[in-house]
Amino acid sequence: DSGVTQTPKHLITATGQRVTLRCSPRSGDLSVYWYQQSLDQGLQFLIQYYNGEERAKGNILERFSAQQFPDLHSELNLSSLELGDSALYFCASSVRGYEQFFGPGTRLTVL
Amino acid sequence: ELKVEQNPLFLSMQEGKNYTIYCNYSTTSDRLYWYRQDPGKSLESLFVLLSNGAVKQEGRLMASLDTKARLSTLHITAAVHDLSATYFCAVDKRANFGNEKLTFGTGTRLTIIP
Fold this sequence. Notes:
The complex is a heterodimer of chains A (111) and B (114). Chain A has no helices and eleven strands. With 111 residues, chain A is an all-beta fold. In chain A, the strands form two sheets. In chain A, strands 2, 4, 5, 6, 9, 10 and 11 form a seven-stranded mixed β-sheet that branches. A four-stranded antiparallel β-sheet of chain A has the order 1-3-8-7, with no helix packed on it. Chain B is mainly β and 114 residues long. Chain B is globular. Chains A and B meet through strand 4, strand 5, strand 9 and strand 10 of A and strand 4, strand 5, strand 9 and strand 10 of B.
C-alpha cells in the first residue's frame, strides 16, 4: 500500500457523459500527478499539481481538467467522454519530486 | 522530446535463469526509475537511480545506470515465478523544482515458466 488513495476503483459510463476521479496523496506530499494507462498509448503523463498550482502539463485533452484543493486532494474531471477514453487512470504523489508513489488507479469504461 | 525505449517487450524465461531488460532514453535526464506492475494493479516502485554508475540491488533484481550511454539495465538473477509481472522504466527531466513528469517506457512483460 503506497498511501495514495483513489476513488472510485471502477467507473462505467456512457459516451458524452462527465465523470470525476478523486485522489488523496500520501500524508505530507505536496505534488500530485495524473497518468493515463491504455493498451494503445501506454502510460502517459497528464498533469501535475504542486501545492494547489498547476506545474506541468502533458498529453491532456481539452475535455479533461484537474485541480488540487487546499487539503491537497486532487480531482480529475473528464467530460464529453468517448470510447477511447476507456483506460486506467493513476494518481501519484511525491514530497519533493523525488520518487512518485502511485495509487491503486481508477478503471474507467466508456460504453 | 524525451523518448524512452525498452526491450524486449515480451520475455519468457525459465525459472533459475538470468536475464536483462534494457532501457534506453533519448536525452539527458535527472533520474531513472524502475517500476513493477502486476496485471490490473498499480505501479510499485523498485529502484531510483540518480547518478552515473549507480547500482542498486533488491533480492534477485539489480538495476544499473550509465548516463553517458543513456542506458539502464534491470538484471534478473535465478528467476522465480513470483517475478512474473510487467516492468517499466521511467525517466524524469525536471525543468525546475516542483515541475516533474515521468516519461515511461513501453514496459517489458516478463513471464517466468516453471
